[in-house]
Amino acid sequence: MTHDLITHVGFTAEPGEGDLRRLEASLARIVELGADVAELSLCGDDLIAGGRVLEGRAKRLADICAKFPLRYSVHGLILSNFMDAPNLEFQKAAALAMIELCGRVGADVLVHHSGHAPMAPARIIAGYEAMQRDALAEVADAAGKHGVRVALENIFAMDDAMFRQQPSQVAATIRELNHPHLVATIDFGHAYIETTRTGGDFLAEVSAMGPVAGHLHVHDNFGRPYSISHFYHQSEAIALGIGDLHLPLGWGDLPWEAVFDTIQVLPGTALIMEIGERFDAEREESIDRARALAARLNARHAAAVAA
């Protein structure tokens, strides 16, 4: 009898940017790498217009996904924001359409970014958080009808003028709603940047998310906030080690072994490496390391169950 918590390891598929043939090629490569799960970045594939699923393109998407022996998750809009009062109805409509797409391809998780708003007094921030909770409850209800879990992801603020929930606050939101179709996505790279920016305790913050986490995003960086706003080449950001770099494991300095010796997650969790085809030559090494990290957590959990 297995007691594994992390059951699948894989990669994010490259968005087709309107060309689903690119997505198909990306999925074929993910299978070649030995992954058993792929995250579909459907935010970049022209599948939704004005909150409505485009039927012809959705059918082509489903046909492509059916070709591969993969479990699927879906990444929603990068700019998803349930604290966006002027556009909240549009935001919810897009998220509901993403859930419908999850159903079309058999994906069991929709990753949804936690919200942001201008920094404001506590009573105003509390209103933004209540707005997000109400929207999440509505969307999670819809997700349940498709057998999908919404996985709320922690993000970092760009500067002190932006409010973002800390990872532990994202976890608190999920615990407060206590919805069977709402879990957390721990993005370790995002947490590393944000806790550097705020002076927070990185391991404590990601550990706080663990008990409600049903999805993991893994990629490397140096935990350095955006002190430069523009780079002419991505290689310049990598050279300086600044920002959300999505590097192969080991290129940055995230303390991966310490993380996976500390956190707990929910059963059936997928570990998704958000490491793109730019680093294809390094992805085989990264999946080996990711499987070792998953085995490390699973072994610790099995030992605790047996004790």
Describe the structure.
The chain has 307 residues and is of the alpha/beta class. It contains 10 helices and 12 strands. The protein has one domain (6-306): Alpha-Beta Barrel (TIM Barrel). It is globular and about 50 Å long. 44% of the residues are buried. The model has no long low-confidence stretch (mean pLDDT 96).
Please summarize what this structure is.
With 307 residues, this protein is an alpha/beta fold. The chain is built from ten helices and twelve strands.
Spans of at least 5 consecutive residues whose pLDDT stays below 50 are none
CATH architecture: Alpha-Beta Barrel
Main β-sheet: number of strands, strand sense, barrel status? 8 strands, parallel, barrel
Q: What's the Cα radius of gyration?
A: 18 Å
Class per helix and strand makeup: alpha/beta
> Into which percentage range does the β-strand content fall?
15-25%
Order of helices and strands: EHEEEHEHEEHEEHEHHEHHEH
Quaternary status: single chain
β-strand number: 12
N/C terminus separation: 15 Å
The name of the CATH superfamily reads: Divalent-metal-dependent TIM barrel enzymes
Give helix % range.
40-55%
Q: What secondary-structure arrangement, pairings included, does this model have?
A:
Layout: E1 6-12, H1 20-32, E2 37-40, E3 48-49, E4 52-53, H2 55-65, E5 71-75, H3 88-105, E6 109-113, E7 116-118, H4 122-145, E8 149-153, E9 162-164, H5 167-177, E10 182-187, H6 188-198, H7 202-209, E11 213-218, H8 234-240, H9 256-260, E12 269-273, H10 280-306
Parallel strand pairs: 1-2, 1-12, 2-5, 5-6, 6-8, 8-10, 10-11, 11-12
Antiparallel strand pairs: 3-4, 7-9
Helix pairs in contact: 1-2, 3-4, 5-7
